[in-house]
């Protein structure tokens, strides 16, 4: 029956999406078995590529009527298995919904289709002196030359953060309006170009719901002026507790850095072993990268204040990087940290938890210990802005059992994050990989409340099934 | 039956709230017939004053089991009738839940009970160099000497903005965690001290829901460092379109003012007629107040840039107010604008809509026209940060029919806001007064979606009944 439902669906979908808008061949489907979560696979029955809100609505309605699971997919960079079709079904790809529809400088918003790549908005806005503040121009995938990066739709599904969230907040703080497609194929436009809305905040509800309530077709995002100048500060530390205290001291000083990123020794070693080496100090236990912005004199003044706080907090070296070319190189190095892991180990699992900032040193040491007791090394990068920790657990898949040990270590680290007062995900979602950890954060009753809300949107339970809820 | 339910409820409530925690006398209930919405009254059956989350939970459970409507109430400054018990029932006042429970500077959060007055947090934080960024220290009520101001719980229920939202966002952007009481009396803790949460964003959903889903008992709010210095810029304009374009020009210039407020001629006249007169120019069609902050040199530099933009945009006068005492006087004048209306007319209706900023001049002229054709004068204050317009429609209640005309003019203005691409509420909620306008903003289907979500929380429909939904 499932088989005939799929072929009935595919035939009808071809009528309005065209031949190239519906993939069903084994070889084509192979690409969609995985996302950035290398430890998980699933097999889709069909992949469709709508171009507009209306096409997305029609194809979702069709699938829902046939009773076929619906899995939204952007660039497939999820690290929690959110984009993996674990139950089979139809993948609705936003690859052809990749248009920037409008830039409205007076209202400081951009209107974009869900498949627009995060980086593109900034490439487009740069000449206007504007930016979209969620800077996720990372290359998550193992190949550092890859141009695959996340889409706005994916960012919304996961409420992603990025390096600039210390100052600008996370994705939900950038959203003014959404056009969503309900499982029934009905289109709902929520919000607009304005700040505030009457009635319930459906934008907040959809954001971070990982495709389990509705699909996002278009978004109205706020854009902000780019500052005239930015200055980068590079500090190194002889031990982790001192680095952790320095992060707190900078925050308590009243400085408003746009970005504040910490890398531990192994993360620095990885980056410095590859083509993106930027001369980061390899002898330090931790390296802290901070960026401040403003007018040139303002940014310089703030940078010297921050540098002073870092020195007083026990940094073993502080450098104000005034040369923009060198600063750009340093930030590129940071952004390549995941990709560079290949230089220190053949495979890795990346985790994503948050912790109260003052527990930073403790969390880093627990992460290392969780690896060490299984004979694995753990590198760490940390977005101090939202207390978002990314431990990278290195393993060698050729050694039997190591992959399982790495996954186990990852779970142990996330549980430690929760025990320290944090959460099991900062920006990569709960997805499939972490759903069994949800009860560590919420009581059964809170989870039931969420499921009751899901049932309002998706009574048949066809939207990204098998995700978030244990 | 209702009568016996009420006395049964009151008797049991007294057991744990004490005699002074339950009001039932006619004379006591009188105070709770109204909120800031002078045009609406309703009669509560009983008013209760829990002191803790547990007491709030117990009293809500009790009322729900008796089938009694539950109306949450902070300071009762609502301007949309949100706090008026139009169906009777029990008012759950947060007046005794007024404690600041914790200030955590390292995580930059404050933990407060829902009844804490907005102003108190800042009074408390000032000596630590911190602030809660939602500055609602207005005195909404007619008496400018009154110390009644809004509570954090009320701010959350309405997702309020305030003068600083241009830079810091609205209430939902300040929230990290909430403790809520469901209609069944069950307590749910959502979020925590961390930025991001796994699962659905229940905080966003509760914020702005005007007590129709659950009651807020406690909140964890982010606090931010106070800047070293601020500088105020005062500009005057000979006509509204020029003032509107100047607001857009300042935003497009990339400046990041903390506050940007516009008052029209009649609003200035009112303020300058009373004890808060601050020497604002009475000859201008519009006066724009802007505040920038930073280090002293940084703030001064930004102020001169903003002043230059204003001059180039056609301001007929621009003054950089460097004297902090004079600046404080000017902002106090702005904050007293509502109260000062008494100097230019005996009564007023205040409306609350948003508009796209570039439609400012158009909206102001429509507002005036809506009054003029009914023989009424309309003053306007405008938060440029979130495009939030507050028209103040003057009338004389001694003249038969004027009050009705004023309400009618208000509705016409809000409809115009929607037609200009805005909304029917910026921060005062939909409440009772504007529920019939909700269909101007949403289609039936979007409203049904909201009602379906309400039913998940409140199947009996007892939470603030008669509000938001038409």
> How many β strands of chain A by DSSP?
19
Oligomer: homodimer
- CATH fold-type name of the largest domain in chain A: Uridine Diphospho-n-acetylenolpyruvylglucosamine Reductase, domain 3
Helices and strands of chain A: which structural class?
alpha+beta
**Which ranges of chain A are low-confidence, i.e. pLDDT below 50, for 5 or more consecutive residues?**
138-148
Main interface: chain pair and counts: A-B, 85 and 85 residues
Radius of gyration of chain A: 22 Å
Helical run tally of chain A: 16
What's the pLDDT, averaged over the residues of chain A?
90
In what range is the share of β-strand residues of chain A? 15-25%
Largest sheet descriptor of chain A: 8 strands, antiparallel
Question: Helix coverage percent of residues of chain A?
Answer: 25-40%
- End-to-end gap of chain A: 27 Å
Number of domains of chain A: 4
What characteristic shape of chain A results from the CA principal axes?
Answer: globular
Architecture (CATH level 2) name of the largest domain in chain A: 2-Layer Sandwich
CATH class of the largest domain in chain A: Alpha Beta
Domain FAD-binding PCMH-type (chains A, B): 40-226
EC number (chains A, B): 1.1.2.4, 1.1.3.15
Protein name (chains A, B): FAD/FMN-containing dehydrogenase
GO molecular function (chains A, B): (S)-2-hydroxy-acid oxidase activity; D-lactate dehydrogenase (cytochrome) activity; FAD binding
């Amino acid at each position: 029956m499932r088989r005939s439902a799929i072929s009935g669906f595919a035939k009808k979908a071809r009528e309005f999406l065209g031949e190239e808008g519906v993939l069903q061949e084994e070889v084509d489907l192979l690409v969609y078995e995985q996302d950035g979560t290398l430890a998980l696979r699933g097999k889709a029955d069909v992949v469709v590529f709508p171009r507009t809100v209306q096409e997305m609505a029609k194809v979702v309605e069709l699938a829902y009527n046939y009773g076929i699971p619906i899995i939204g997919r952007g660039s497939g960079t999820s690290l929690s298995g959110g984009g993996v079709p674990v139950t089979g079904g139809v993948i609705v790809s936003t690859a052809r919904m990749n248009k920037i529809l409008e830039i409205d400088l007076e209202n400081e918003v951009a209107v974009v289709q869900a498949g627009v790549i995060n980086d593109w908005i900034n490439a487009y806005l740069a000449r206007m002196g504007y930016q979209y503040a969620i800077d996720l121009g990372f290359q998550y995938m193992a190949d550092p030359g890859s141009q695959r990066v996340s889409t706005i739709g994916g960012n919304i599904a996961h409420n992603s953060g990025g390096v600039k969230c210390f100052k600008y907040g996370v994705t939900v703080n950038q959203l003014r309006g959404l056009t969503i497609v309900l499982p029934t194929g009905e289109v709902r436009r929520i919000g607009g170009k304005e700040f505030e809305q009457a009635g319930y905040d459906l934008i907040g509800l959809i954001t971070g719901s990982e495709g389990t309530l509705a699909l996002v077709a278009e978004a109205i995002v706020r854009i902000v002026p780019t500052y005239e100048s930015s200055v980068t500060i590079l500090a190194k530390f002889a031990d982790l507790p001192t680095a952790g205290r320095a992060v707190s001291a900078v925050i308590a000083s009243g400085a408003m850095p746009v970005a504040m990123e910490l890398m531990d020794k192994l993360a620095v070693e990885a980056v410095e072993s590859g083509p993106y080496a930027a001369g980061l100090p390899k002898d330090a236990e931790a390296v802290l990268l901070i960026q401040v912005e403003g007018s040139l004199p303002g940014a310089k003044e703030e940078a010297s204040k921050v540098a002073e706080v870092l020195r007083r907090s026990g940094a073993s070296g502080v450098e104000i990087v005034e040369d923009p070319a060198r600063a750009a190189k340093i930030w590129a190095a940071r952004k390549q940290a995941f990709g560079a892991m290949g230089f220190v180990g053949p495979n890795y699992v990346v985790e994503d938890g948050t912790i109260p900032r003052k527990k930073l040193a403790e969390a880093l040491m627990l992460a290392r210990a969780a690896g060490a007791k299984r004979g694995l090394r753990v590198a760490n990068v940390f977005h101090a802005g939202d207390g978002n920790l990314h431990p990278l657990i290195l393993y060698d898949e050729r050694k039997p059992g190591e992959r399982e040990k790495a996954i186990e270590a990852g779970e142990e680290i996330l549980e430690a994050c929760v025990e320290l007062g944090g959460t099991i995900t900062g920006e990569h979602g709960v997805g499939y990989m972490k759903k069994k950890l949800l009860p560590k954060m919420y009581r059964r009753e809170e989870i039931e409340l969420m499921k009751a809300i899901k049932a309002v949107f998706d009574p048949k339970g066809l939207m990204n099934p098998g995700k978030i809820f244990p």
